[in-house]
């Protein structure tokens, strides 16, 4: 299944460059965590400070709530997520403490 999510970055060119550098070489633990929870593919696009993530999942293994719980329980993944908050800013439509927010598909060809 394909998921489309949005998140903003802080409007600081140096922070944006650092964020992109981290994503050119994500930690092996992050890659393993994603694969272990059924994420089979992921792409992140940026326009200005707005990011869009396309995530492909194997729905026989992917469970967003289980993945979130595993994130909270894994110190290395928590460390990555805390580091990412240095760069990220919630969109105006995000709830309190919410990061990536699912987007609604409005057209398909």
Strand content: 25-35%
Q: Give me the CATH fold name.
A: Alpha-Beta Plaits
How would a textbook summarize the main sheet?
Answer: 5 strands, antiparallel
Assembly context of the chains: single chain
The amount of helix comes to 25-40%
Structural class: alpha+beta
At CATH level 2, the architecture is 2-Layer Sandwich
Radius of gyration over alpha carbons?
14 Å
Number of helices: 4
- What separation lies between the terminal Cα atoms? 16 Å
The residue-averaged pLDDT reads: 97
E-strand count: 5
What is the top-level CATH class? Alpha Beta
Topology overview:
Blueprint (H helix, E strand, L loop, with lengths): L1 E8 L3 H12 L3 H9 L2 E9 L2 E8 L6 H10 L1 H11 L2 E2 L11 E2 L7
Antiparallel strand pairs: 1-3, 1-4, 1-5, 2-3
How would you characterize this protein structure?
By secondary structure, the chain is an alpha+beta fold. The protein has a single domain, classed as Alpha-Beta Plaits. Helix content is 39%, strand content 27%. The chain contains 4 helices and 5 strands, in the order E-H-H-E-E-H-H-E-E. Strands 1, 2, 3, 4 and 5 form a 5-stranded antiparallel sheet that branches. A hairpin with a 2-residue loop joins strand 2 (39-47) and strand 3 (50-57). The longest helix has 12 residues, at 13-24. It is globular, with a radius of gyration of 14 Å.
Keywords:
alpha+beta, about 40% helix, single chain, Alpha-Beta Plaits, about 110 residues
Summarize the structure.
This protein has 109 residues and is α+β, with helices and mostly antiparallel strands.
């Amino acid at each position: 299944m394909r998921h489309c999510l949005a998140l903003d970055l802080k409007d600081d060119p140096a922070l944006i460059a650092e964020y992109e550098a981290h994503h050119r070489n994500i930690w092996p633990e992050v890659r393993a965590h994603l694969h272990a929870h059924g994420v089979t593919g992921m792409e992140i696009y940026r326009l200005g400070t707005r990011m869009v993530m396309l995530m492909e999942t194997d729905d026989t293994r992917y469970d967003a709530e289980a993945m979130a719980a595993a994130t909270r329980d894994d110190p290395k993944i928590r460390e990555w997520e805390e580091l990412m908050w240095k760069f990220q800013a919630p969109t105006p439509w995000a709830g309190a403490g919410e990061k990536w927010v699912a987007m609604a598909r409005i057209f398909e060809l």
